[in-house]
TrEMBL record:
<feature type="transmembrane region" description="Helical">
    <location>
        <begin position="131"/>
        <end position="152"/>
    </location>
</feature>
<keyword id="KW-0472">Membrane</keyword>
<dbReference type="InterPro" id="IPR009936">
    <property type="entry name" value="DUF1468"/>
</dbReference>
<protein>
    <submittedName>
        <fullName>Tripartite tricarboxylate transporter TctB family protein</fullName>
    </submittedName>
</protein>
<keyword id="KW-1133">Transmembrane helix</keyword>
<keyword id="KW-0812">Transmembrane</keyword>
<feature type="transmembrane region" description="Helical">
    <location>
        <begin position="92"/>
        <end position="125"/>
    </location>
</feature>
<feature type="transmembrane region" description="Helical">
    <location>
        <begin position="12"/>
        <end position="32"/>
    </location>
</feature>
<feature type="transmembrane region" description="Helical">
    <location>
        <begin position="44"/>
        <end position="63"/>
    </location>
</feature>
<feature type="domain" description="DUF1468">
    <location>
        <begin position="15"/>
        <end position="157"/>
    </location>
</feature>
<dbReference type="Pfam" id="PF07331">
    <property type="entry name" value="TctB"/>
</dbReference>
Length: 161
């Protein structure tokens, strides 16, 4: 197998892993319980919506990767180096998301969301301004808390569930 085919195959492999991860997340969120109970969104509504969105977006990414696999030409070594750097970020996002899901029920919404949002902003900004990143994390977490607790009337888990 030529180097070209191996590089193109790796461009399709990561989106395929994202699709599998998103599907697993969606299935797991549905196994936890009904996202809607008594006509109102339950605490499981948001994870289900997030799973559906992740599955749709990752499927779109896989579809685009397959299309580019069919009709793209050989890349230069500079573009290959850039590709390696761009695949690093999605991998870090997947790792951060898995960590968020893992600690959510134990650490609660506030702590887990603060850490997750800080990590995601840091991944995209290369942690250039940690104080602004921390402030943004606090603001976004607070907005999420207000939306779910006060507008949707969905009680989010605190520390230790």
């Amino acid at each position: 197998m030529s180097q070209y085919k191996i590089n193109k195959l790796s461009e399709v492999a990561f989106p395929a892993i994202l699709v599998a991860t998103s599907l697993g997340y969606l299935i797991y969120s549905l196994l936890l319980g009904a996202p809607i109970s008594e006509g109102l969104p339950s605490p499981l509504f948001f994870p289900t919506v997030l799973g559906v969105a992740a599955l749709l977006l990752s499927t779109t990414l896989l579809y685009r990767a397959i299309l580019s696999f069919k009709d793209s030409s050989l890349e230069t070594s500079k573009k290959e180096a850039a590709t390696k750097e761009t695949t690093k970020r999605p991998a870090l996002i997947v790792i951060a998301t898995i960590a968020y899901i893992s600690i959510f029920s134990h650490a609660g919404y506030i702590i887990s969301s603060l850490l997750y949002i800080f990590a995601i902003i840091s991944i995209f900004s290369n942690l250039r301004r940690p104080l602004i990143t921390a402030l943004g994390s606090i603001i976004i977490t607070t907005m999420g808390l207000v939306v779910f607790e006060h507008i949707f009337r969905i009680r989010l888990p605190g520390i230790l569930g």
